[in-house]
Design a protein that fits this description.
The chain has six helices and three strands; from the N terminus they run ααααβαββα. The chain is mainly α. α2 runs antiparallel to α3, α4 packs antiparallel against α6 and α5 packs across α6.
Length: 164
């Protein structure tokens, strides 16, 4: 058997071992043996489930994206608080279908997660052909403006980050 069978994810194995010992707050021989066993067996069992993901091609842009999303979360929290504290009849909730230009699963997942993290919007479904992301928004006055914002503010940077 090859090395890759016995140690398919060496970094994960090391992290599992360390976390096991930290969670048990001991370096007793029994915990060392059990931690070593689990840190070898769990990655072997999980290795067939591993799928190849696109790599981050522009890490500095990824950091900028994270900071932008954090800022958007703060601003959206304030906007949603103002909307919710106002009269409910002013709200115009809607489902919006956003056409996707990205095709890989990881960037689509990050886009859907970003939309869901931003208060006032939540990703509700991805079409089976992965061409549309359906979003529910708490207040929509202009559907095309919302789509344009999501595509330019979130999807375009993800395309650059993953070069897809």
């Amino acid at each position: 058997m090859s090395r890759s069978f016995w140690l398919p994810m060496p970094i994960h194995s090391l992290l599992l071992f360390i976390v096991w010992l930290l969670l048990n707050n001991t370096v007793a021989p029994g915990h060392i043996v059990l931690g070593a066993f689990l840190s070898l067996v769990i990655p072997i069992l999980c290795a067939p489930l591993k799928t190849e993901q696109p790599h981050v091609r522009r890490p500095l842009l990824a950091l900028k994206y994270i900071l932008k999303v954090l800022g958007d979360i703060v601003v959206a929290n304030i906007e949603v608080a103002i909307l919710v504290l106002g009269p409910v009849r002013r709200l115009q909730p809607a489902f919006v279908a956003v056409p996707l230009d990205i095709k890989e699963e990881l960037p689509i997942t990050l886009l859907a997660s970003t939309v869901s993290l931003t208060p006032g919007t939540v990703s509700s479904e991805l079409s089976s052909d992965h061409k549309w992301l359906y979003i529910h928004a708490l207040h929509v006055t202009d559907e095309q403006a919302l789509i344009a914002t999501i595509k330019s503010r979130y999807e375009a940077p993800l395309k650059e980050i993953f070069a897809c």
